[in-house]
Amino acid sequence: MHEDEKKYGKKRNIDDTLKGISASKKIPKSVFVLLLVLYAISTFYLIANSRSEALISIFGNPVPATIFTGVFSSFGNICIILLVVMFRRVGFFTSISLLFLQFPMQMVTFFISKTYSSIPGIFTNLVTIIAVCIIFANNRRIGKYQEKMREIAVTDPLTGLPNRYACTVLMDNLIKKNIKFTLVSVNLNNFKTINDTLGHKAGDEMLKEIANRWRILADSGDTGTFDFVARLGSDEYSLVIRAYENEDDILKTISFYEKELERKIMINNCDFFMSACFGVAEYPNDAPDSGALYSCADAALHEVKRVGGSNKVLRFNAKLLKTERYLAIERRLRVVLENDEIKPYFQPQFDMEHNLRGFEALARLQDEDGNFISPVEFIPVAENAGLIDQIDNSILRKSAKFLAEINKKGFRNIKISSNISVLHLMKNDFIDDIKSVFSEIAVNPADFKIEITESVMIDSDDKALERIEAIKSFGMQVAIDDFGTGYSSLSYLHRFPADMLKIDKSFIDVMNENEASKQYVAMIIAIGHVLNLSVISEGVETKDQLDTLKEIGCDYIQGYIWGKPLPLDEAIKLFI
Ligand code: C2E
Ligand code: CA
Ligand code: CA
User: Fold this and answer.
1) Which one of 55, 99, 154, 395 has the fewest beta carbons within 10 angstroms of its own beta carbon?
2) 555-568 pLDDT, tens digit each
3) pLDDT of residue 37
4) Mutation test residue for ligand 1: of 336, 341, 379, the one with most atoms within 8 Å of CB
5) Phi-psi sector, 54: left (phi>0), alpha (psi -120 to 50), beta
């Protein structure tokens, strides 16, 4: 058994495990012995000292040694009080016994030796006994209160199961002892429907019944493994499983919990058949600490919920974290769009003489902690989730307000570029979306340019051309973004009614590495000019790049060399 304990930790039922988690730290027995020894020493010196007639010299003056009696007496009492405070019941009975033991000695001194100097000692003893009793009684009250608080801290009030904190402490303890275990995140299926249709009271009954069944199962040991069940909140539970050999054992244990759950549950005279999904992660294989383990188990759980189907259990694998991040971004996007919190940043665009021409509006998304999530990451998520048109519209609307403010300050030549996803362009309400912005905000559409990536010319049919025509007849301009990265044919480019070509940063990055790269950029600029388009280079970072672009006849530039994307309030400050 000792070997087993080392390998798996102690087998306990849930209540005992909780008690173990919530118990206060025990003070070592050695402290108890030390206090007793100190007490014995001080009592010995107290007796020896009180009978001594010796004189000792303090600063050259002879004084009777008995003046130290009080010091030894106080020291002994301090030991007594510490015993009661630190060791509660045991300390109290030990102290009281020691104090009562002093009485016979003091009585002998008083009645037989007729030494009246022992009277203060008797009084001190009595007072100490009373003090010890008061401290003990008080300590008991505080102790009971602390115990209650600790119990509350580790239990879920609704079901009485351990809560997330208890589950984390248990896992941390197992990790400290390097004991292998598996965390299973559990989420009930369709619990919300029960809450919504039958009310919260019935929902609570359901959660309690499930908790009860699982607690009994965990305590019974029928699963063949050591199990611990906790409720983390709403319809989320977790299982910590130990003492198994392989994955089959884990799956077998989970199937026990599934079966218990799937038995009929009767609430308000109605029969319910519940089911749940399970995400599985193992220490130390999947994660090194409890926090990461929760994330892994949750990632597996979300995936199994997302996929649906008959399989309800999934073991964590590294690929899931990517999916998890993806879903987290999608959730965040929905919240941010709902609250209209997606922000535009404005990156300045200049002509080659460094005169400000306008800005490109770039969408910015922040997570809950205020960290920025790159558009390279969230734009594809938004496109997949069907949220991209909301982003494009929001950025265009906020850019229009920004330009209206600049115009009000008397600056009239500023142009704004706003990105539009091809997916948005192809939607039927695209034109209406754009028009509604300009009907709300009094700015001239001619000061706006939409940037559409070159891929529009490869992927799409004539519908894209129609849309672009419609935008142009509304007065707006069009730029072909990331130009050079696709394989657009010259004939299509010729038909495409754009106003500007935007050379992609990847070409600017390598432009000065060799003559061929430089000539490639020069050729794009020449084609642009032949087709009557102005040309802007993006991602210009160095003086060399700037010089080359001037030399080969580029019209505009955008890049860190002259300006990074700015938040709205800083961009506004450029106009005073
Ligand atoms: P993009 O349209 O090609 O935008 C240019 C990107 O290059 C921006 O990155 C900009 O911050 C960055 N950049 C500009 N100059 C420099 C430079 O000198 N050095 C470096 N290292 N980078 C520079 P950002 O803001 O991360 O945007 C990435 C992409 O996300 C954009 O590429 C665009 O395709 C997309 N995007 C951004 N906002 C929106 C939006 O509102 N709607 C849509 N549909 N797409 C957007
Ligand atoms: Ca762009
Ligand atoms: Ca680009």
Assistant:
1) 55
2) 999 999 999 999 99
3) 95
4) 379
5) beta
